Amino acid sequence: MRTEKRFTPKVLERFLREGRGTGSYADYTPWHRVSRGDPSSKGRSHLIVWRDRQRELLSDQEWGGLNFAALIPNLVDLAEQFPLNQESAPHDLSRWHVGEGLKLFPGTREIAEMLGIKHPTLTDGDETHIWTSTTDLLLIVRNQRERLELLAVSCKPSSVLTERAKELLLLEKTYWAQRGVDWLLITPEQYEKSVALTLRRTSPWGFDEPASATAMREACKVVHWAPWHPYSDVIQHLTDRFGGEKHRHEAQRALWQSVWRGMLPVDLRRGWRPHQPLNLISRKAFTSLNPILARRSACI
């Protein structure tokens, strides 16, 4: 049972003492965490170990967003529950790229005043405290010029998009726009449910220890050799090639990591039944199934 049921100034002070929202790569600590000491989220929470760090996701929507983000081939890092600066501060990319410069960008308090909306606050008795806004997923990607850039992603169910929620999303979107960063609002309307379900079912292999390049090439070769064969036959063939039944997990991991890394563009709308084939599609069609790769965003 959680020991703290709601947010209080003491809780937020503890977040600061613990270094929440600081660091990068494996040393990053999310602002909100899935722990007994934190107030619970409204959705189902998920803990997923990936790239040397436990990822802390507060809803099914964020889990889906992480799955889509993991398919991005030029993804360098990902920070969940990323806090937005309340006051003017250097560009957020500076923690990943030291030479980003010393220019200051407006914080959420200034932006809220500029937009004419009320900044989120925390009320404790007669006292009011400024609330720290966060972005669900902040992606660090390497662009075609080999430079790092940010992509901010908010993952929300359509049911929570009240007028006040839209104001807060506008605050978040403007924060990133001031920094020249693209911001996406991903709701269930931006992707097909069957695609999200396939990624959930295959995520244990997608987030598993990296398969070898040789194993993934073999998986690609088998699928291209038998494009209309049942999925169960493909896995059995790979299992046999890798040395028998004790290597079945290795076969699953090699195949699905080939898909997750974009080496094997298959139709992710497929069902779960083993007798169904892995249908190959064009890379353009594969990209269109992923709202983050396709840069699709809901309107606010």
Structure description:
This protein is of the alpha+beta class and 300 residues long. The protein has two domains: 9-190, Trna Endonuclease, Chain: A, domain 1 (3-Layer(aba) Sandwich), CATH 3.40.1350; 193-288, no CATH class. The protein contains nine helices and ten strands. The chain has helices spanning 9-17, 60-70, 108-115, 163-178, 193-206, 213-225, 231-242, 248-260, 283-288; strands spanning 46-50, 53-57, 75-83, 89-90, 104-105, 121-124, 127-130, 134-142, 148-155, 182-186. The strands form four sheets. The protein has a four-stranded mixed sheet with strand order 3-8-9-10, sandwiched between helices. It has a two-stranded antiparallel sheet with strand order 1-2. β9, α4 and β10 (182-186) form a beta-alpha-beta unit. α2 crosses α5 (193-206), α5 (193-206) crosses α8 and α6 crosses α8. The longest helix is centred in the middle third of the chain and has 16 residues, at 163-178. It is elongated. The mean pLDDT is 93.
